[in-house]
Design goal:
This protein has 578 residues and is of the alpha/beta class. It is built from 21 helices and 12 strands. It folds into 2 domains: 310 residues, ABC transporter type 1, transmembrane domain (ABC transporter transmembrane region fold), CATH 1.20.1560; 137 residues, P-loop containing nucleotide triphosphate hydrolases (Rossmann fold, 3-Layer(aba) Sandwich), CATH 3.40.50. Helix 4 packs parallel to helix 5. The C terminus is likely disordered.
C-alpha cells in the first residue's frame, strides 16, 4: 500500500490542506468535553446561568466551525481520492499496454479487468478514508488520552488496561482477515473470467444450447465467492461487538471510580462527565478503526495485486542499445530459430527453423493445426522473442531494433479480426490516423471491402458494433486486411486472414496483393491450398520444423506432406494448377 502513495504526489497541497482542516476539527471536538465540564462545575453547580449561556454559545460556535471544516475536508478528500484513482487506473492501463503476449498469457483478461476496476476502487476508498477517518481516529485518540490525564490521572490509568487489550484484538482480527480478503479478490477474478468468457462467446453458448452449463459454471464461481466473503464477514462481525463491550466496560469503570472520587470530594462531577467523554473519544476511534479493518485489509490485498502488475516487466522490450529502423528493404531471415513458451527449448513449438523471405517475395506457410505457423510469424514483429537462434530483418537481429520502428514496418491481419468501436473508416486507418479518405478507399478496394462498405447505409461512416457484431466474419477480415495494407508496410503478414471469405473474394484479394507487392515481403498463412498456389515460396511446417520448401510444382514433385494436403483439398482435378 505504501508504494501506491507515489500517485498522491501531484495532490500534496490539497492533501495537506485536508489534513490541516481535519486537525482543526479534532481540536474543536476535543474542546467540547472541557466546555461541558465548565458548564457543570462553574455554571450548574454554582447556579450561574450567565456562565451556562456563554459557554453554550461558545459550544454552538465551535460546532458550527467544526461542521464547515468537516465539509471542506470531505470535499478535498473526495477530490484527492478520485484524482488518485484516475491516475492509478491510467498508469495501470499504460503498463498493460507495454506487456508482450507472454505477459498477457499469464495475466488473463478477467484478472486485469478486476485489477483496473475493483482493486483500484478498494485502494481509492482507503485513500479517502485516510484523509478522513483513518487520520482523525489516531489524532482523536491521542488528544483524548492527553486531556484525560490532565482531567484525572487516576481515571486515565484505566487506559493502561483498555488500550493494549483493544490493540491486541484489532491486530488479531487484521492478521486473520487480510489473507481472506486476498482470497476474495482471487475468487472475484475467477467470477469475472467466467462472465467475460460467457459474454464474448454468447453465440457459441446459444448455438450449442449450453446455457445450463454456463449457468452452472457461473453459479459455482458465484457460490465460491459468496462463501469466501461470508467467511470474512463472519470473522469481522465478531470485532464490532467485542470492541463495543470493552467501551461499555471502560465507561462503567470510569463512572464507578469517578463517582467514588466525587463522593469523597477529590473530583468534581464535571470532571467525571469530561472523563467519560474523553474515554469515549479515546475508544470510539479504535471502534472506527476496527470497522475499517475490513476495507483496509481488502485495500492492502488489492494494492499487492495492483503492484504485481507494475512489477511485471514486459518480456519483450527494446534493448538499451537498440536503434531505430528506417527504410527497410524487407528481407526476413530465420536463423536456426528455436521457440518455446517456456524458458528453454526442451518442448519447442519451433525447432531449428532456417528460412529466408526476400524483398518482394510472397512466402506461403502451410501446415496442420499446431504445426507452429502463427508462432513463426509472431517472432517477426517480436510479439514473442526466439528462445534460441535469431530472426533478422535486412540482416539485423530484430532484437537490436526499437519495437516502435520494427512494428512500423510490419502490417498484420490475424485470423480473428479484432475491430474497435467507431466507424469503419476509423478502423481501417487505425494504424495510420492521418491517412486521407482516398488512401482509405484504395486500401479497402485492395482488400475487396469497398463494395460492401459503400452498400451500407452510412458507407465508411457506418458504426461498428461491439466486436464488429453487425458485420460478418468475412467482412471483418477484409476490413482487417485493409487496415494492414493502409500502413504501407514493408512486411505484410496475413495469418489465415481470408479463412472467412469465399473463394472468389479471396482470388480478388490475391490479385490486388500481387499488384501491390512490389518491394513488399508478404508472408501468408493459409488453410486453403488454393490461396498459395502462386506464391514465390511455399513452406510446409510439420511439428515445429520445416518439412519442405519450394514452389507448388517443386513441392508436388518432392514433398509427400504437400501432396497429401493438395490431394485432400483439390484432388486429381486440381493438378492442372501446377
Amino acid at each position: 500500500m505504501r508504494r501506491m502513495t507515489r500517485f498522491l504526489k501531484p495532490y500534496q497541497k490539497a492533501s495537506a490542506l485536508a489534513l490541516l482542516m481535519l486537525i482543526s476539527v479534532v481540536a474543536m471536538d476535543l474542546l467540547i468535553p472541557r466546555l461541558v465540564q465548565r458548564i457543570i462545575d462553574e455554571g450548574i453547580t454554582r447556579n450561574d446561568m450567565a456562565t451556562v449561556l456563554n459557554t453554550a454559545l461558545i459550544m454552538i460556535g465551535v460546532s458550527f466551525i467544526s461542521a464547515l471544516l468537516t465539509v471542506g475536508n470531505t470535499v478535498l478528500a473526495v477530490r484527492v481520492a478520485q484524482n488518485f484513482a484516475t491516475d492509478l487506473r491510467s498508469a495501470l492501463f499504460r503498463k498493460i499496454q507495454t506487456f508482450s503476449f507472454g505477459n498477457l498469457d499469464r495475466l488473463q483478461t478477467g484478472q486485469l479487468m478486476v485489477r483496473l476496476t475493483s482493486d483500484v476502487n478498494q485502494v481509492q476508498q482507503i485513500i479517502l478514508l485516510s484523509l478522513r477517518i483513518l487520520t482523525r481516529a489516531p489524532l482523536m485518540m491521542l488528544g483524548s488520552v492527553i486531556l484525560l490525564i490532565l482531567t484525572s490521572w487516576q481515571l486515565a490509568l484505566l487506559m493502561l488496561v483498555l488500550l493494549p487489550t483493544t490493540t491486541l484484538i484489532i491486530w488479531f482480527f487484521t492478521s486473520k482477515t487480510q489473507p481472506l480478503f486476498l482470497q476474495v479478490q482471487r475468487k472475484l477474478d475467477k467470477l469475472n473470467t467466467v462472465l467475460q468468457e460467457n459474454l464474448a462467446g454468447v453465440r457459441v453458448v446459444k448455438a450449442f444450447v449450453r446455457a445450463d452449463h454456463e449457468n452452472a459454471r457461473f453459479d459455482q464461481a458465484n457460490s465460491v465467492l459468496t462463501a469466501q466473503t461470508i467467511q470474512v464477514m463472519r470473522l469481522l462481525s465478531m470485532l464490532f461487538p467485542t470492541m463495543l463491550l470493552l467501551i461499555n466496560l471502560g465507561t462503567a469503570a470510569v463512572v464507578w471510580f469517578g463517582g467514588y472520587q466525587v463522593i469523597s470530594g477529590t473530583l468534581t462531577m464535571g470532571a467525571v462527565v469530561a472523563s467519560v467523554n474523553y474515554l469515549l473519544s479515546t475508544m470510539f476511534p479504535l471502534l472506527m478503526m476496527s470497522m475499517m479493518m475490513g476495507p483496509l485489509s481488502a485495500a492492502q490485498a488489492s494494492a499487492g495485486r495492483i503492484q504485481e502488475v507494475f512489477d511485471s516487466d514486459p518480456e519483450v522490450q527494446s534493448r538499451p542499445q537498440a536503434h531505430a529502423l528506417t527504410d527497410a528493404t524487407g528481407r526476413v531471415a530465420f536463423e536456426n530459430v528455436c521457440f518455446s513458451y517456456s524458458q528453454d527449448c526442451h518442448e519447442p513449438v519451433l525447432n531449428k527453423v532456417n528460412l529466408v523471405a526476400e524483398p518482394g517475395q510472397t512466402v506461403a506457410i502451410l501446415g496442420a493445426t499446431g504445426a507452429g505457423k502463427s508462432s513463426l510469424i509472431h517472432l517477426i514483429p517480436r510479439f514473442y522473442d526466439a528462445t534460441e537462434g535469431r530472426v533478422t530483418l535486412d540482416g539485423v537481429d530484430v532484437r537490436d531494433m526499437t519495437l516502435e520502428s520494427l512494428r512500423a514496418q510490419v502490417g498484420i491481419a490475424l485470423q480473428e479480426a479484432v475491430l474497435f468501436s467507431g466507424t469503419i473508416r476509423d478502423n481501417i486507418r487505425y494504424g495510420r490516423p492521418d491517412a486521407t479518405d482516398a488512401e482509405v478507399v484504395t486500401a479497402a478496394q485492395a482488400a475487396q471491402a469497398h463494395d460492401f462498405i459503400v452498400a451500407l447505409p452510412d458507407g465508411y461512416d457506418t458504426l461498428v458494433g461491439q466486436r464488429g457484431v453487425n458485420l460478418s466474419g468475412g467482412q471483418k477480415q477484409r476490413i482487417a486486411i485493409a487496415r494492414a495494407l493502409l500502413v504501407q508496410p514493408r512486411i505484410l503478414i496475413l495469418d489465415d486472414s481470408t479463412s472467412a471469405v469465399d473463394v472468389e473474394t479471396e482470388a480478388g484479394i490475391q490479385a490486388a496483393l500481387d499488384q501491390l507487392k512490389n518491394g513488399r515481403t508478404s508472408l501468408v498463412i493459409a488453410q486453403r491450398i488454393s490461396t498459395v498456389l502462386n506464391a514465390d515460396k511455399i513452406v510446409v511446417l510439420d511439428r515445429g520444423q520445416i518439412a519442405a520448401v519450394g514452389t507448388h510444382a517443386e513441392l508436388m514433385a518432392s514433398s509427400p506432406i504437400y501432396q497429401e494436403i493438395y490431394q485432400s483439398q483439390l484432388g486429381d482435378g486440381g493438378r492442372h494448377h501446377g
